[in-house]
Amino acid sequence: MKKKLLVAILSVSLLATGLMGCGNTKSGEQAERAEAETEQENQGEQLESGKVALRIWVEEANIENLQKMIDSFEQKYAGQADFEITIEPSGDADTRNNVLSDIHNAADIFSMPDDQLYSLIAGGALSPVVNQDEVKNANLPDAVDAACYQNALYAYPYTADNGYFLYYNKQYLSDTDVQTFDRILEVAAENEKKISMELNSGWYLYSFFGNTGLDFGINEDGVTNHCNWNTTESSINGVDVGQALLSIATHPGFVAQADGLFVEGVKDSTCIAGISGVWNAVAVQEAWGNNYGACKLPTYTCKGQQIQMSSFKGYKMFGVNAYSPHLAWAHKLADWITNEENQILRFEERSQGPANAVAAASDEVGKVPAIAAVIDQSQYGVLQRVGNSYWDACTSFADTIAAGNPDNVPMQELMDRLVKGITASVVQ
After folding, report:
1. Do domains 18-26+46-161+314-355 and 165-313+383-422 have the same CATH topology?
2. CA 265 to chain centre
3. Which residues partner with 183 through β-bridges?
4. How does pLDDT run across 44-98, given as a tens digit for each residue?
5. Longest CA pairwise span in the chain (Å)
6. 311 φ/ψ sector (left φ>0, alpha ψ -120 to 50, else beta)
7. Which of 78-82, 181-185, 202-206, 222-226 has the weakest average pLDDT?
């Protein structure tokens, strides 16, 4: 509890000064101070000789691919140090908690999603990128912005595909069918099949609210949220979205289930469409073969209108532990495993969309349906920047909707509860 409180206090003191990416401006004094601190730290780093032991945390599925990058790194710098580089499996979703719970014993380099960046900076866990300009220029602007705080780059981007889109089976659904949620539901029901979505996850639930003109986001304190999804004074109100959700959730062609169960539904042919991400691309393609399709999210009917579904978009990056005993080499290795060549290797072997601008623009990347779909959907997406109270509130609301609102609670009351939960203080 003390550790969580400390991180929360640090978050407030750090983020209250302004949540700014690399593309934003700030006061000259703040900019000069940040640049001076980064330059001073970088000048003090020396590539040491002798034994250099480094640990890297990544998802277990990426270990084999990463080992090839480490092998090439050791060949590149052979003779400059005696390397002992170890890869340890660690879920990206758990990086923040694992690092902040024991920074000194955390890995020297760790993979993380962009939404954990601010907390890790606030906790003093991240050493800023050494070659700032080089890394910024090499990667996509949005990926760079996601890895920045107040014009300083704190992590090395390596994927630009951490979002979601629509998978569909071409045996049942045409390119025209998948443009609207209504038509997908009709086709699924006609064939006694389903379109799957993890409705009670706030990550996915946002897609119905994000393009309606309703307001939601994190406050300047970096901890709490602002949200007006219960308003009665907009052209589209929260009740309108809620009713649209209830209509979808109770349709015979829809199933609300966990992301992993969607894959099972693909394999046993119960699901002909689903909203998910690139991590399921291989499994879906293996199951559907030539009938495998992917595209941006559809529109859905709300208050008699067709609303384009929005999304959270995200990026993966490697951070360097500020307490690494071999800081200079840790930065060198993090830079190596995220360079253009290795982002291409990661794409070729793991089908992960590159953050590197040159790699992302290649014809081969554009030919992969899942990556093309997540890139297309990104124009309707926003970076995930939310306070922790958002998640449980969304789960409670969506569970009620998915069950068909069995107690017949007035929709306005459900929306009021949702907004009260989203905007609640989480500092304890």
Report:
1. yes
2. 24
3. none
4. 358 999 999 999 999 999 999 999 999 999 999 999 999 999 999 999 989 999 9
5. 71
6. beta
7. 222-226
Report the pLDDT averaged over residues 409-428: 91
Average pLDDT across the chain, whole number: 90
Q: Would you state the structure tokens that stand for residue 274, as one six-digit string?
A: 């689903």
- CATH superfamily entry for domain 165-313+383-422: Periplasmic binding protein-like II (3.40.190.10)
How many CB atoms lie under 10 A from the CB of residue 130? 21
Half-sphere exposure of 227 (CA within 13 A, CB side): 27
- 375 pLDDT tier (thresholds 50, 70, 90): confident
Count of beta carbons in the 10 Å neighbourhood of residue 428? 7
Q: Which amino acid is at 41?
A: E
The β-bridge relationship of strands 156-159 and 316-320 is: antiparallel
Number of other CB atoms surrounding residue 13 within 10 Å: 12
HSE (CB half, 13 Å, CA atoms) of 381? 26
248-288 confidence digits (pLDDT tens): 999 999 999 999 999 999 999 999 999 999 889 989 999 99
Sequential DSSP letters for 55-68: EEEE-GGGHHHHHH
Superfamily of domain 18-26+46-161+314-355, CATH level 4: Periplasmic binding protein-like II (3.40.190.10)
pTM above 0.85, yes or no: no
3-state SS class at 185:
helix
Q: DSSP string covering 379-420, please? A: GGEEE----THHHHHHHHHHHHHHTT-TT---HHHHHHHHHH
> How far is the first Cα of the chain from the last one, in angstroms, to the nearest whole number?
8
DSSP 348-364: HHH-PPB-BHHHHTSHH
